[in-house]
């Protein structure tokens, strides 16, 4: 078949180059696993299996990656098949394709590559979690004012804020693990769409390729892309949350906030302004993460409204985008993990500013409720009158202002000393009083951090087990194929 030069230029050449980079190794592993299975099932004779194994052994992946596409074959599969024919002859080489199709080979390759990408992104989140946990442990007592609706709201701690981000990353980890489990099923043996009449062993090829088992329905094995959309969705949620965190860190790095200072290795200067110290690592992470999020949306859009079946829209043209999305997502996450490991917070300055804007006023209202059994709404009104009085009479003592405010609301004054009110309105007292489960008190954040470290260790162990299983399957495949 002679392909049109435009088709070669705009499609086949591009796909061949992408396949060499992304799919050659999985393709060769599939060839070996399928051959081992054919030999075990007696579908291919021992002699032919040995000849095929020798032929496969003689194929150099490095040499293939140097090949320039010439249009004399359709794709990487047919190029590799040509090499097998050259090594083994037509009659023997043709036996390798018994009970399989490019359809199930392709879907198996895509899943093999994608599971690696999911594990890579998960590994990045684990590194980020450890980086943030280390920061949280150092800053359980570092007070700062947090915001709602972009305005100063209440005092908290750096640890409390970071633990919120860490918990979100833990949920991201759960989604990525679930996506890995959905992806790690083996379509090989589904053939074109209906399977085969040969007595193949799909469980054996699944084991040899590191899958947890075969996919089910043979048509669905070829037609479905929900496993891809699941991992893409998990990445989308991760990237969205990650971007919001990065945006906060960039805001905190401004001179106006002055909360955060990155290490010298993660900032750049200016060619004209000697004073500049730009937190560019975080800017790059934001841009890379946004690019990955756009790629993730493009993946879903490409698959949307395509037929539920074998279709090129979800195959060769889409896979490089999948790879690029996961690569960029992982880059963004790992860059932030590294940058935050250098982060410094000026604890004294943060605490000194934490009460600005009456951020501790809720605690005054809460104290009035506890001490005088007031309805919260009345206590809230007293606190509001208290602030109004302060704005009108900045020279009056806190004790006099509270007495006036309580008289306005209750008809009688409430008596507190200046020292008592100074303590009640202090950011540290505010934080220490909030021992609620999940709250900012240092004791509670210490407990939460211990839980998160336990979860991190569990997730790291899961990741190690998953990666070890793939490595063990690869070694088993080498041993089983070498024995042919």
Commentary on this structure:
With 484 residues, the chain is mainly alpha-helical. It folds into 3 domains: 5-98, Fumarase C, Chain B, domain 1 (Orthogonal Bundle); 105-353 and 447-482, Up-down Bundle (Fumarase C, Chain A, domain 2); 361-425. Helix content is 67%, strand content 4%. It is built from 20 helices and 4 strands. The chain has helices spanning 5-22, 24-40, 46-57, 61-65, 76-88, 90-93, 102-138, 158-183, 202-208, 218-223, 226-252, 280-303, 319-340, 347-353, 361-372, 376-392, 398-410, 418-424, 427-433, 442-482; strands spanning 143-148, 151-157, 260-261, 344-345. It has a two-stranded antiparallel sheet with strand order 1-2. It has a two-stranded antiparallel ribbon with strand order 3-4. A hairpin with a 2-residue loop joins strand 1 and strand 2 (151-157). The protein is elongated.
Task: Summarize the amount of helix as a percent range.
Answer: 55-70%
Q: What's the name of the CATH homologous superfamily of the largest domain?
A: Fumarase/aspartase (Central domain)
Find the count of extended strands (DSSP E, 2+ residues): 4
Radius of gyration: 31 Å
What is the average per-residue confidence, as pLDDT, rounded to a whole number?
95
The chain-level structural class is mainly alpha
Count, helices: 20
Based on CA inertia axes, which overall geometry fits?
elongated
